[in-house]
């Protein structure tokens, strides 16, 4: 709740770090592992070989993934499966809205084999304090803020979040985040003004 207030107040800034996506996902998965193991849920990660080091806001991406993964585990019955897939988004659309000029879009999907979400709930659950209208959500508790926060964090970067699901058939939450490769990140935009002479 605090985080949402901070974003609304415009105090949430993007902090760039360069990191290796594979190591990052290993860390995220290992943090979620105890939660998954309690329900004998297997977590897997699949990373496109093109994806290596990136420059992006690691802490916020982590926060989004924790939210999505904890939901995936919460709404998947014992013995189910949860996974993350990461790849560059081929159809990187409107670069003018991206937070990083000339950035590429990295696409993260968190999928599960869980209870799924019906058509009437698909839009609503991204709003604050909204949960799918099932006894399951009430049974599991939660404030209904995780997805609202995740959506705000994604949109802060100029990315989008979407959902594919049907009741009883699992869910896939997909978000895109603009990133740069480390090489691009250290290259100056303009040639440096070394050795230029100025009039006067
Ligand atoms: N992976 C999922 N599978 C099924 N339902 C989900 C999933 N993720 C989210 N939901 C639905 O969206 C609602 C909102 O999620 P969220 O904002 O994280 O709130 P909370 O987890 O506190 O209920 C959940 O209560 C649940 O009904
Ligand atoms: Mg949640």
Task: Explain what you see.
The chain is α+β, with helices and mostly antiparallel strands. The protein has one domain: Heat Shock Protein 90 (2-Layer Sandwich). 32% of the residues lie in helices and 22% in strands. The protein has six helices and seven strands, in the order αβαββαββααββα. The strands form two sheets. It has a five-stranded mixed β-sheet. A two-stranded antiparallel ribbon has the order 1-3. The longest helix is centred in the N-terminal third of the chain and has 17 residues. It is globular and about 75 Å long. The relative contact order is 0.18. The structure holds adenosine-5'-diphosphate and magnesium ion (MG).
Unique bound compounds? adenosine-5'-diphosphate, magnesium ion
Oligomer: single chain
Low-confidence stretches: none
Overall pLDDT score: 83
């Amino acid at each position: 709740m605090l985080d949402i207030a901070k974003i609304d107040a415009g105090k949430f800034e993007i902090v760039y770090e360069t990191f290796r996506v594979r190591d990052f996902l290993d860390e995220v998965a290992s943090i979620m592992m105890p939660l998954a193991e309690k329900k004998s849920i297997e977590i897997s990660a699949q990373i496109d070989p093109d994806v290596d080091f990136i420059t992006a806001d690691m802490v916020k991406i982590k926060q989004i993934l924790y939210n999505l993964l904890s939901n995936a585990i919460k709404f998947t019955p014992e013995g189910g499966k949860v996974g993350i897939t990461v790849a560059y988004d081929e159809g990187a659309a409107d670069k003018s809205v991206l937070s990083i000029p000339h950035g590429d879009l990295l696409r993260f999907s968190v999928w599960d084999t869980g209870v799924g979400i019906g058509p009437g709930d698909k839009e609503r659950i991204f709003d604050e304090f909204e949960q799918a209208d099932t006894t399951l959500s009430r049974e599991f508790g939660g404030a209904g803020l995780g997805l609202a926060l995740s959506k705000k964090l994604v949109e802060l970067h100029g990315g989008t979040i979407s959902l594919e699901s049907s009741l009883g058939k699992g869910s896939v939450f997909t978000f895109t985040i603009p990133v740069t490769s480390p090489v691009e990140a250290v290259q100056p935009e303009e040639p440096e003004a070394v050795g230029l002479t100025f009039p006067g």
